[in-house]
Structures are given as C-alpha cells and as structure tokens.
UniProtKB/TrEMBL annotation, chain A:
Compartments in which it is found: Cell inner membrane; Cell membrane
PANTHER family (alphabetical): MOLYBDENUM TRANSPORT SYSTEM PERMEASE (PTHR30183:SF8), MOLYBDENUM TRANSPORT SYSTEM PERMEASE PROTEIN MODB (PTHR30183)
Entry's transmembrane regions: 12-36, 48-69, 81-103, 196-215
Statement: the UniProt record of this protein carries the keyword Transmembrane: yes
A Pfam family matched in the record: BPD_transp_1
Functional summary from the UniProt entry: Part of the binding-protein-dependent transport system for molybdenum; probably responsible for the translocation of the substrate across the membrane.
InterPro entries tied to this protein: MetI-like (IPR000515), MetI-like_sf (IPR035906), ModB_ABC (IPR011867)
Bilayer topology: Multi-pass membrane protein
Keywords from the named record: Cell inner membrane, Cell membrane, Membrane, Molybdenum, Transmembrane, Transmembrane helix, Transport
NCBIfam families named in the record: modB_ABC
Keyword Membrane: yes
Name this protein carries in UniProt: Molybdenum transport system permease
Length: 223, 378
C-alpha cells in the first residue's frame, strides 16, 4: 500500500514539477522567441546547448551542476556571497537542475510555434498600430497557444519523470529532495516490490494519460 | 540625385508637386545581392497611385519602404506634411506609429479573432480624436455586415480581402497602401472586389498607393502611375499621359490603350447610346444605365483608332475627334504608332506605315481620329 513517505514523495514531485514548469515558461519563452527570430550566428550554438539534455546522461548534467553549485563552484560562491547558502541538496537546487534538464522540452515546442507564426502577423499588427510588446501579447501568445500547451505538458511530465539529475544534486532527503522516482528506487533497493509496484504503476498511468491528452489534442488541432 | 531621376517628360509636373504640403515625397535607396531599389518620387497626396511593373521590379519593396516595414539606409519620406523618415537626421518613425493602412497580398486576418475583433484590432489602438472613419462606414463600404461574427478560416478569399481592407480603413489612415490585394483571387472574386475599391476611391479622401502588375486593374483604378523596372522609376505621371508615352513599353503592347476620364452628358434612348463628354468633346458609347453627370473612365485601344485628313461623315464610325499629331514611333517595320493630342487628352493610334506615309502624318499635323470602339472601365 501507499505509505506516508510515498505520499510525501508524490506531493514533493508535483510541487517540484509545478515550480519548475512555471520557471521554464518564464525562462524558455524569451529563449525560444530569440531562437525563432534571430539571424545571429550564435543561433546554432544556443540551440545546441538548449538541446544537450536530450542526449547527455542525466548524471553528467547533475555532476556539472553539483560542481558549479557547490561550495567551490562559481555559482556556489555567488549564492554564498548573496547570503543564499548552497543550492545542492535543497528544493531550490532541484528546481535549478530540473530547469536545465527539461529546458529543451519547453523551448523546442515554443520555438516551433513561434516559427510557424512567421513574420506576416507581426507586420500586420504593426500596420494596425501595435508595438512590439503589444503584438507579443495580443497576437503571438494567442497564436502560439498550442505550443504553450504542449510545452507546459511536456515540461511538467518530463520533470516528474526525472531521476538522475535529482539523485546527483538533490540526494535523497525525505520531504526536501526525495521525489517519486527516488522513492521507487529506495523501495526496490529494500526489496519492497509491492510498494514499488504501486508507485511505478501510478507513474505509468500518469505518463500515459498526459501523453494521451497531448496527442489526442493534437489531432483536434489539425482539424 | 533628383536631377538624375529618369522622370522624362513628366518631370515638370511631378516637380511642381514637391512643394505641395498635401503631397508625398519619397526617396529610397536600398538593396541586397541581385537587387537595388533607387527611387526619388514626388507623388500627389490624393487619388490612386499605381506602382506598376513586372515581378522583381521593386514594387512591393517600395511599398514596404513607404510603410516602414523595410528601412532604406538612404531614405527620406514625407507624407502629407508629416515627416516619417529622414536618414540624414537618423529619423525613422516605426510602422506602428505611422497613420497608414496596409492591405497585404494574401489573407492576413488574425486567425484567432472573429471578423469583428479583427476590425477592432487597429481601431482600438487609434486615439479617439484621430478616428475619422466610423467602423460602421468601413463595414458598409465593403459590404461585410453578414460576416462580423465569423472566424477568418470560414471566409472565402474575396471576403477575407474585403475584411482586411475594412480593417485598414477603420484605423482612419492618412495613406492606404495595397500590395496587389487582388492577385491571389480568381477573376470572379476580382470582379467582386473592384467595385468596392472604386467606392473607396469615390467616397474617401485617402491617397491610395496600389501595387499591381495587371494593366487592366491599373487602367481601371489608378489616377497616377509609377512605372518601375529593375528598382528604378521609368516614368511617373497621370495615367492618361503615362499610358500614351511612346518611349514606354505600354504603348507598344499589342493591346495598348489610353484612358479618358469623362462624364455622362446625355442618353439617346432611340438608339440606345450614351454621349460622354471630355474636354468639351463628345464620345459616343453603347447605352449606359447611369445618371447624367456621372464620372466615368473609358478605354480606347490604339488599334481601334484610325486617322483621316478630313472630317468624314460617310462612314459608320460614330466618334470622329479633331486631333493633332504629337509624335510617331516607327520601330515596327509595318506599323506606325501615332500619339495624338485631342484637346489636351492623349490618344494613341496604330496605323500601317504605308497609310502614315500616304497621308503625310508628321508631328504637328491636324487630323481626325476615328474611334471604332470605346469601352467603359468604370
């Protein structure tokens, strides 16, 4: 059966995914907009960096984040100087790691949506007296809505499903960094297969429902 | 630079307009590999100005420069007393701060908004004090009342363009720019929209710059023509003058014609004819169902005009106009193109070279132009 520790892990997972998704939309939107519109030579470089989590083992990302955020890393020194303490093995540290890890899942659908809109609606808006920011909110956002829905779903679901990055920079601290995937790992280590089944099946159903919602909706969009 | 601009005979007229507060002064120089736009224009601040030329001649680029969608490195633009661009002082008013309307070639309605919300998009961004065209008038002018609650995806191509035109008008523009608004439509849809464009012309005092590569559209709508080729203005002037210039490609077209602005003077019910009048001269045409004094535009093909030395009344031709030969073009070995002056209005006649020689057609000679056919354009 589901234990109190399992419930705490589920709650923490959802919290992490929600905060991470919100942060991803804030960070990912300008990055995607820039990638969609720029003619800069840096476009390829930035695009590749954003896509790195798609191919790198999560342990590699986790390892470098651990080093960077740690007491001797540049970011760690900065956070200490600002009086924020150190991020590894905290919830905030998990959010930072998750944002990097899920970035391509948010940026790429947004970039595709922005590119699909093209230059014309922006020009039309300009001839109808809308400035750049006005145009972004009144034309780009509504037209890119399907892209935002996809990005939100994928960002959330991918964060729920992460394991390696969490383990590397979050460790395994109940109520702080122990998310569902880590909890399952613990159950299996302890040979508690029944508990592992409950959580794993839950994740399976959750992921399937999310993807079903995504692809079912896609079909409707095409119409 | 203006001295080098290839204006030709129209230069005196266009030059005179430069000092006119209500006019448009535009000078743009910009380019990219394989193309360069280099124009210096003085245009009237009223009526329909057609930018005419083949694809790749720079029509759309020029229009985009006028709109500020393209920024010419070397640019100057003053529209009806307002300075919109002057690179000499690094001045460039961005598109959204220019009181203009722009109709794009293809459907450009916002897909996420109803027709009504599309119309209101520009309107609500215009300060109340600057609104001169009520939304209702724009809707009525384009006949789109029944479409207001529809989404753009459910409109026909012609309906979409009408909404786009109304949307541009609703911002009460001081200049309306249209980039081949009919090009994406079939003949039937074109015929559906042309009357609305003519109403626009008749009812609103907004100068329109209209890009087109279709001579019949230009002849029907334009008052003034800018002929573009390879990014340069070959000719600028009133339509009647430009169409009749022998040094331009128009006059050499197999279907070369001139346009004559006239008014309805009388109806002859017995013979189902209508008498038009221009420059005090009569022009008979098949009976029209139009009130007296209506302003109309007629087209006369060069090949429908023959010449005689005396005013003959023994032929079946109704329209015989006194004319003076202005110039000749004998580039074609068999045929001569004659430019005539009929009480200040230009007319073209295409006759055989042999006839020209036998009749002694030379510049300055007084002749009679026999017009076999007159077609109404609008």
């Amino acid at each position: 059966m589901i234990t109190a520790a399992d419930l705490a892990a589920i709650r923490l997972t959802l919290e992490l995914a929600a905060v991470t998704t919100a942060a991803l939309l804030v960070v990912g939107t300008p990055v995607a907009w820039w990638l969609a519109r720029t003619r800069s030579a840096w476009k390829g470089v930035v695009g590749a960096v954003v896509a790195l989590p798609l191919v790198l083992p999560p342990t590699v990302i986790g390892f470098y984040l651990l080093v960077a955020l740690g007491p001797h890393g540049p970011v760690g020194q900065l956070t200490q100087a600002l009086g924020l303490g150190l991020l590894p093995f905290t919830f905030a540290g998990l959010v930072v790691g998750s944002v990097f890890y899920s970035l391509p899942f948010v940026v790429q659908p947004l970039q595709n949506a922005f590119e699909a809109i093209g230059e014309r609606p922006l020009e039309v808006a300009a001839t109808l007296r809308a400035g750049a920011i006005d145009t972004f909110f009144s034309v780009v956002l509504p037209l890119a809505r399907p892209g935002f829905v996809t990005a939100t779903i994928l960002g959330f679901a991918h964060t729920v499903g992460e394991f390696g990055v969490v383990l590397m920079i979050g460790g395994n601290i109940p109520d702080k960094t122990r998310v569902v995937s880590v909890q399952i790992y613990d159950h299996v280590e302890a040979l508690e297969y029944a508990e592992a089944h409950w959580l794993s099946a839950g994740m399976l159903v959750f992921s399937f429902v999310v993807l079903l919602a995504l692809y079912g909706r896609k079909k409707e969009m095409v119409r | 630079m203006s001295g080098a601009a290839p204006f030709g005979p129209g230069a005196a007229r266009t030059g005179a307009m430069a000092g006119d507060e209500a006019a448009i002064r535009a000078r743009f120089g910009l380019g990219w590999p394989g193309f360069r736009l280099d124009v210096d224009l003085a245009l009237p601040g009223r009526g329909v100005i057609a930018l005419f030329g083949h694809s790749g001649s720079g029509k759309t680029t020029l229009l985009r420069c006028l709109a500020g969608l393209e920024r010419a490195a070397d640019g100057y633009l003053a529209v009806r007393g307002e300075l919109w661009q002057d690179e000499a002082q690094r001045l460039f008013v961005p598109t959204h701060r220019r009181p203009l309307g722009y109709v794009f070639q293809e459907a450009s309605l916002f897909a996420h908004l109803t027709v009504r919300r599309n119309l209101e998009f520009g309107l609500k961004r215009v300060p109340a004090a600057s609104r001169r065209i009520p939304l209702d008038q724009a809707i009525a002018l384009l006949g789109i009342e029944p479409l207001l609650d529809r989404m753009p995806g459910r409109l026909s191509g012609g309906e979409r363009q009408r909404v786009a035109i109304a949307r541009a008008l609703a911002t009460s523009p001081r200049l309306l720019l249209m980039d081949e608004p009919l090009a994406a439509l079939d003949v039937k849809r074109k015929q559906e929209i042309l009357p609305y464009l003519e109403r626009l012309h008749a009812e609103l005092d907004i100068p329109v710059v209209y890009v087109s590569h279709a001579p019949e559209e230009v002849a029907r709508l334009a008052d003034h023509v800018v002929l573009l080729a390879d990014g340069r203005a070959l000719a600028v002037g009133p339509i009647g003058e430009v169409m009749a210039r022998l040094d331009l490609p128009f006059a050499h077209d197999e279907d070369a014609f001139v346009v004559i602005d006239a008014r309805v003077a009388a109806h002859d019910e017995a013979y189902a004819l209508t008498r038009l009048e221009f420059a005090g001269l009569p022009l008979w045409i098949t009976g029209l169902d139009m009130p007296l004094a209506s302003r109309v535009r007629a087209r006369v093909l060069a090949r429908d005009v023959s010449l005689a030395l005396t005013e003959r009344h023994d032929s079946s031709i109704l329209n015989v106009l006194p004319a003076r030969v202005v110039s000749l073009d004998e580039a074609d070995p068999g045929r001569t193109l004659v430019r005539l002056d009929v009480a200040g209005t230009a007319l073209l006649a295409r006759i055989t070279r042999r006839s020209a020689a036998q009749l002694g057609i030379v510049p300055g000679r007084d002749v009679y132009a026999q017009v076999k056919g007159v077609a109404l354009l609008r």
